[in-house]
Amino acid sequence: MAKEKDEDADRDPESKGEIHERWERKGEISSRYTEAKSKLPDDPRTDPWAYTGLLSRNPAKNITPPLWEAIKSEAYRVYRWSVERDRYDGLESPEHRLAKALGKVQLRHYYWSKGTNENLTENLDGEDATRLYLFFDLSALNQSGVARAIKNPDIREALGIENSVSQPTLNRMPGRMDEETRHYYASETETLVRQLQDTKLEHWFRDPTPDTIVTDGEGFPPVQVIARELRSKTFKYLRLKRDSSTEVTKDAALRVLIAAANGNGFVNDAAKNLKYKGFYDDGDIPTGQNLTHHLRKSSRENVVQMFREANERLFEIAARHGYFPDNAEVAIDITDWPFYGDSESSEFIRGTKPGRNYSWAWKYITLALVGTDTPLILVILPVHDKTKTPKYIRRMLRLSRQHLNIGRVYLDAGTEFYNSDTISTITEQGLELVMQGRKSVKTIKHFLNGMARADLRSSYYPYGVGSLDEDSYYAVGLKSDKTVKLRKSDADEPMDDYTYFYTNLHPEEVPPEELGEAYRRRWGIETDFRVIKEEFLAKCGSRNPALRAFYFNFAAHLFNIWTVANILRAEETGESLSEGKQLTAGELMQAIELLVS
Q: H-helix or E-strand containing 378?
């Protein structure tokens, strides 16, 4: 199992009380010096001995700060430099900025001396090895990610080390440190990550080591423990683009959105209702407008990126627990979020199948893992132009393949999918395709009606949609017992009792009955999106695409947290997820809402 930090280190972070006492002592020294200096005569010639009796430099400035404060100071310098040069958004990775900060810290002679950590690796001297250990223990990357990062010469240059090391060497380095030194550096890094929580720099760093939770000798309920762990790993990537004028914390702003999602309401109403909940401090409740003000500062691209980073932490946990199958099946869908206002108010509002009081919607194309007891939403992209569906699919497949090996893709019968461009996009990547076809074409109608007249349960024939090669694809018909059972009158056409599938799988290798059974596995994701909209999605009347994208991605992220929480809980209890979820969506949402209080 890859470690995300030096998990075996004995940590003793500096407490808030200790930090306060240290700063008070330093402040007292500085005050005494300032007071003594103020009593000196204006002209040294008046009393030269008074000047020689006072140090020329304030002794408080000669006190070496703890290592964590030195790293924090350099990190903020790197951050300010990036902002001033408009380099903060997207041009440099968080690990690159962290490496820059660590590379600027003067370790000798304050925090490292010759002979310390000399034997950690043959590739690096003691000081370089110390910098690498600090990078390893502070970065949000897992162990393999750190090993890959230091192969990048730009990161090595920023970090100030000459050579890279292999992942096995990286794994062995902490164990080669003497116990006292390892405890010292681990405690410094732990203090730093705790101090940077809920700051603009938190996503550069790993999450703090969870404290042991004990209340009345029994501890918190498992759902709260798991929710705290998962929230700490992912929420730090959700950036609200706050500035120095911000008066509320990120957690305080997000609590409004969480409360709205938990009650399936609007953020303005949720903010007003929070004051009636006893676990919130009424003085620290921001308004709904405060939240949306910061969310509107992000672009849709920023939103997609931050949630990709947040979800990746969940995917890593799922992978470590053996969640991803060797040959995964995924479903690609376009999901509607109904819109009730002026359809001309945003180019992202598209026409949709009419529902109750609406015929317009915001649309999101999604890729989800299916065929498991607890699916994950791997990618969500806002749909601007349905003709660009092949482009969206290529991007989603590329992103998803960073986490799992995809073998088969399921598509529904939407017009954006049932065309030669989209279908060839799937098959060109060597993937199996199973989709529900459209029966409107004369050839397909003739095929299915012929099956009905011959009373065939299943059949197939080579068929190319549009410009596709008919030798590579097949139209597959399968009688739907469910449709026949539910129908209360005669079918309008014989083919109405048949389901039509389109595939690049040869029906002699995958029989139609097996194909139909496989396709049913994607139906679960439709149920899951209903859960997302009912349990995790706040209401929104805004016409702002970035705000809408944040709300929808946040709901899907909460769903993914729910999935991973069930994976962790099932492992704890030794029960199978196939027998039912360990935690309900409502239990998880309540636990997360309590955590941000």
A: strand 377-382
